[in-house]
Amino acid sequence: PVLVVDFGAQYAQLIARRVRESHLYSELVPHSMPVDEMLAKDPQAIILSGGPASVFEPGAPGIDKRIFDAGVPILGICYGFQVMAHELGGTVDRAALGEYGKTHADIDHAEGLLEGSPAEQSTWMSHGVAVEHAPKGFEVLAHTDGAPVAAMQDPSRGLYGVQWHPEVRHTPLGQDLLDTFLHRSAGLRDNWSASGIIEDQIAKIKAEVGDAEVICGLSGGVDSAVAATLVHRAIGDQLTCVFVDHGLLRKGEVEQVKHDFVKATGIRLIAVDAADDFLTALKGVSEPERKRKIIGEKFIRTFEKAQRQVIEEAGAKGKEVKFLVQGTLYPDVVESGGGDGAANIKSHHNVGGLPKDIKFKLIEPLRTLFKDEVRAIGTELGLPDSIVWRQPFPGPGLGIRIIGDITKERLDLLREADAIAREELSKEGLDRDIWQCPVVLLANVHSVGVQGDERTYGSPIVLRPVSSEDAMTADWSRVPYDVLATISTRITNECRQINRVMLDCTSKPPATIEWE
Ligand code: XMP
Fold first, then answer.
1. Is the distance from the beta carbon of residue 348 to the nearest atom of ligand 1 less than 6 Å?
2. Is ipTM beyond 0.85?
3. CA 508 to centroid of chain Cα atoms
4. How much is the mean pLDDT over the chain?
């Protein structure tokens, strides 16, 4: 693998992902892993990530110097670059000028790591510490106003470093730099593809499951559909999918999922109507994290209850369901505080929202993947576009789109408004431009309106169309005014309790995509 050594960077996983976009398998390891252990993984190349520390502060995370003599090509990025410079005898100091965001870099030598680079590059930086002098044997390739050494290399030892972040899209030539490092400097050949991931996962799942019975919590979305299809490839009829109708689904969703999924995959599916159960448990609850925890727990209890039926349908008398498949993705893990040292932003229902006493062992074949990788795998597995390109819909469903407590009436109202918005956006062919468009009911807010010559006092609906690459960051979509106007008119006409429609024009960050 290509090892990405994580120094606590926000972007470490992004580096791993970009390496995969260069068609090479990557693994993330903590900087605290002993160097011998890293080398035992037989890395083809190593990338040292950025991180929040300063190398000269006491207790700053470093790395055993021996790694630089192991004969493995190494690229240091930002903090990782400074660690390399520091450990090998260069000088690193507080920068005369901190650089945050878009930064202009002058390329002094367009060779090696920067082969083919124009004389100037726009780069994305985030540093208040700089490498003043490169270690002996290194050639300085670039500088900026705040970084006398912004890129350096010693090809004879296979060591390279850059101050800027090649992994973010804001560095336009960043992917080129990573490509150059991996394919030219390190001389690696492609080894990562959707078909490779599939083979790998199938082998892993087979080995783990043996002849046990497995259920998969299917939501109808691309993640659980791909996870189920992968597991089905591995173990065939030992898999039963369970689709829980928790009463928080959108209009027509139950029928549509049942029909589309079974038709596309032929996997055995049981639908469980648990709406009353969920709504009772959620009664009077308006705090978002509590809602998420309750829903996460209820999902598991519903799967547990469905066990007997699953065993019956599977014709597996006397056996037990041992495993539960979930379509958890990496962003869910990170945002639920599951990444190393990451903060808990919200408890995604299938990660942070799970109860501690689960009777099943979890199988999460997509846990290290990003959405675009999952979509590529779905296509490779032969799933139709209607599933692969379905917009994301959160497991807790409309439950986290009613701001306030959840009632049947509010759900019905939101379902109608949501159906109108979806219908109009699809009609305009915007389904792929828009990553997803949550429709949110501000149930506790009331404003005065006039409808049919009468005063009304109703709740607003918020439209939250966003564009995104991976849901980790997002921008609000510039939906044409005409389309917004149609949606607004239809919602206020057809849903009498709604007298205002608002547009959420906030990116992520600072907001998240869902309101709760
Ligand atoms: P946020 O709101 O965190 O959402 O910016 C990022 C993406 O994740 C979806 N989401 C969830 N998906 N279970 C899921 O399966 C959850 O609990 C959950 N919460 C948010 C959200 O729709 C967006 O695509």
1. yes
2. yes
3. 13
4. 93
